[in-house]
Each structure stands twice: as C-alpha cells, then as structure tokens.
Specification:
The structure holds two protein chains of two kinds. Chain A is mainly beta. Chain A is built from no helices and 16 strands. In chain B, about 35% of the residues lie in helices and about 30% in strands. In chain B, strand 6 and strand 7 form a beta hairpin. The chains are: A mainly beta, B alpha+beta. Chains A and B meet through strand 10 of A and strand 3, helix 4 and helix 6 of B.
Chain lengths: ~190, ~260
C-alpha cells in the first residue's frame, strides 16, 4: 500500500478512470469516473496477485467517518434491558469492537438464543436485565430493533451480576456462580477464549 | 407641549417615514434603469458576498458547519446516523431528517423563532439526492439548521452549509451540494440578493448544484421570467455554485490535514 502523495480529497472529487481503477472504501464508480464519497486521504492499493481484476483499488481513508452502524453479520456487545417470555431486548453498545455514539436497540428472540432444543428455551433462565451479552446481528429486524442471535458457543453472556450483587463466574455453558454467596444462576454463557 | 401632554394626544413627526420611503424610491429608480448601479453594499450585479465558512462549531454533533455571507449567519449541526424513531416504518435505506429554524432575533422584527416547514422540506429535497442513503439502512441522519441572522438568500446558504456539515460528519455523499440564488429586477439579474433586494425582486431563482458531477439537485423559480433569462440565470448560478464549492473543499481539506497531524 502506498500513499498517493498524501492528497486530501473531498466528496465528489475525481479519483480516476474506472477502466484503470476500482472503487474501494470511501469511493464510488459513476459511469466511467471514480469519485470520492468522503473527505480523507487518497490511497491506491495494488490488485491482489492472481485475482481476475487487474485494476488497482482506490480508497479514501484517514478522516473521521460517521459512527459505526450495526450491519447483518457484525458482532456486537449489548446490555440486556428487558426480558420477556419470547424475547429479550438489549441496547447495543459496541459494534465490531468499536463503541458507538448513538443508542441502537437489539432484540434476541427465543429461537435465537442457542442452537439446540430451541423450542425449550426459557428466556428467564438465559438472560437477566443488566447482563452484558456478546451477539451477532442476524438482520436489520423490524422498525423497532435489530435481531440479534447468540446461537454459537462463543456468544452469550460475558459479564453479569448476581442477585446478591456479586460477580457471576461461569462454571458451565448454562450456569454461573456468584463469587460472594456461591449461589448458582442460569444463563446462556459465552465461551470466552 | 404641556397642553399636549395634558390631553394625552400625540402625533407622529411628519418626516418619520420619509427616509425609508426615499430609500425605496431610490432603489426603484435604479431598477428602472439598465445600468450596473452599485448595490447597497457596493457590489456589482454579479458579485457574491464574501463567504466565510468553518467546520466544527458544535462539538456535541457528529458534524457541524457555520456560514456567514454578509449579514446572513447560519449554523448547521448533523447528528447520526442514529436509530429512527419507533413510530417510523421499516426502511431499507437511511432517512434524512431536515429541520430549519430561526432564532427569535434573526429578523429585524422580533419573531417567534418557529420552525420553517417550507425551508425544511426544500433543504431535504436539495440534499437527499446527494447523500448515499443506502450506506446507513434503517437509521436516520438529522440535519438541524439554525439561522442566527437573516440577511437574504437564507435557503441557499443553509443548503451549502448543510452539505459542508454532512461532509464534516463523514456521511457518504455523491458530491457536495452548493446553492446560490439570483433575483430578477426588470431586465437585470442580480446574484446573492440581500433581504432588501429580495423584498423588491420581480422573481427569484434558487439552484442547488453538485459541482463535480454537474447535476442540479433542486431548482426553484418564482415570479416573472423570460425563457432566455432563465437559461442565463441558471448558468450564472451553476458557475457561482462551482466557485462556492472550491471554498467548501478548501475548508474540508484544512480540517482534514489538521486532524491527521
């Protein structure tokens, strides 16, 4: 990767011809021309060896981009706010390890809690309000919330407090133990490496 | 004097309105003539007011911009992309929410500072074609414009300032949008009118333009115009928009180099 003179470009500025350049992040192709869509430094990335497309890719990087927005497939960290019989709602706090500025609401439905025996899931035995959950965004969901899923070993509760106020320590993939009272509580626990 | 005070009557000085009337008459006389008369602020017909623009006055917002064209002062803040209101329907593309409001002290006559619905929708129309709405599905970008002082050509300045604020916020756009208005006086076209000139115009034209792509996003025409003059005026606006966009790009590049250092 080489910085192309460190030139700063602004939205709409011409970056090159689409016959010789492909549009990467922060750029778009408009007919024959490739233009910038954000303000930033222009960078040219040579094509990957062996790829069918022999054009270099031009990117616009470096300047502040807008805050992260959850996309289907991104891993998010969320705090559970409400647990109902068929779903739990959660506020998304991080998207792909980036903290987000604005609040987004997510929803974990009963069928998206775990992979096995999905019809026997008890939401109250999986999540509690206040739990910090790692989940993956399934889809953009409905008008209200993003649909989240914890159907994977490494997804689920990563941090939680017990009823007594102590920290819960995972002891199996369905149970966590309070470090003050030793009481065991049910959760869908994430396997953290 | 004391007798007048006792009866409680009063009469206005006979000359009170004269000065204003005189100024209006003078303006009218000028309009009737064809000559390139100096405008109230010393500009010629095709001179724009000096533009001062800056990014980042509102630190709480994702992006913001301030613009000052003569007496017109505008501040625009951009928030988001953030979650759409619950009442909204689901949508695959993002939403652009625009709101234009005036301060109570924006006009010589103290106003209500109410939202300007007409300008809000016109700002939305001018910008929506330039913003890549598909890059933030289901979410909303809020654009709040506040007119601190209204000195003429408010809407075009709001549009240009808003596009600078959107670029400052890092919202993906096809191009910057700049906007310039012209007023038509008899046979003459004058660019970037002040409020006084707007009050006496025969017609007006507002063009919002994407200079790099050479596309018009919005065109508003009011009043009496002839075909040939419309063409003339549109070309004049487009040229002014291109020059205004150079100022916007310079401002963006200033801030971009500053942040990278």
């Amino acid at each position: 990767m080489d910085l192309d003179g460190g030139g700063v470009v602004t939205p709409g500025e011409l970056l090159g011809n689409s016959l010789t350049l492909a549009a990467g992040r922060g750029a778009y192709a408009d007919g024959r021309s490739v233009r910038a869509s954000v303000t930033g430094h222009r960078r040219i990335v040579p094509p990957a060896p062996g790829s069918s497309d022999q054009r270099s890719t031009v990117e616009v990087v470096g300047h502040k981009a807008h805050g992260a927005v959850p996309q289907p497939g991104s891993v998010v960290i969320a705090r559970v706010t409400k647990v109902m019989a068929r779903m739990a709602s959660a506020d998304i706090m991080c998207v792909d390890s980036k903290a987000i500025k604005e609040k987004f609401t997510g929803m974990i439905r009963q069928q998206d809690v775990r992979a096995t025996e999905i019809d026997k899931v008890d939401m109250y035995q999986s999540y509690r309000p206040g739990d910090i959950v790692r989940a993956v965004v399934l889809s953009l969901g409905d008008a209200r919330a993003y649909y989240l899923s914890t159907v994977k070993n490494e997804l689920g509760v990563v941090s939680a407090q017990s009823i007594a106020g102590g920290t819960l320590v995972p002891i199996s993939w369905t149970e966590m133990q309070c470090d003050l009272t030793g009481q065991i509580e049910q959760r869908k626990v994430a396997k953290v490496e | 004097m004391s007798a007048q005070a006792a009866t409680g009557t009063y009469s206005p000085a006979a000359a009170a309105g004269d000065k204003r009337r005189e100024r209006r008459e003078e303006l009218r006389r000028h309009l009737a003539e064809d000559a390139d008369w100096p405008r109230a602020d010393g500009r010629s017909f095709h001179d724009c007011r000096p533009a001062f623009m800056q990014t980042g006055p509102t630190t709480a917002a994702s992006g913001s911009a301030y613009a000052e064209f003569g007496k017109t002062k505008v501040i625009v803040s951009v928030f988001g992309p953030r979650e759409s209101k619950k009442a909204m329907m689901y949508s695959d593309v993002g939403r652009l929410n625009c709101n234009v409001s005036y301060t109570t002290f924006a006009t010589p006559v103290r106003g209500q500072g109410a939202d300007n619905k007409e300008y809000s929708s016109m700002l939305h129309k001018a910008l929506e074609g330039a913003v890549m709405l598909h890059t933030f599905p289901k979410t909303t970008v809020d654009v709040f414009a506040l007119v601190l002082e209204s000195g003429g050509s408010d809407l075009p300045i709001i549009i240009s300032c808003a596009s600078l604020a959107l670029a400052d916020a890092g919202i993906m756009m096809y191009d910057l949008v700049t906007s310039v208005s012209v007023s038509c006086f008899g046979k003459n076209i004058i660019i970037d009118p002040t409020s006084d000139e707007e009050a006496w115009q025969d017609g007006s034209l507002v063009v919002a333009f994407m200079p790099a792509r050479k596309e018009i996003t919005q065109l508003t025409l009011t009043g009496e115009w002839s075909d040939s003059r419309i063409t003339n005026a549109v070309e004049l606006c487009m040229d002014a928009c291109s020059k205004l966009s150079d100022i916007l790009r310079d401002r963006l590049k200033d801030t971009a180099t500053l942040t990278s250092e």
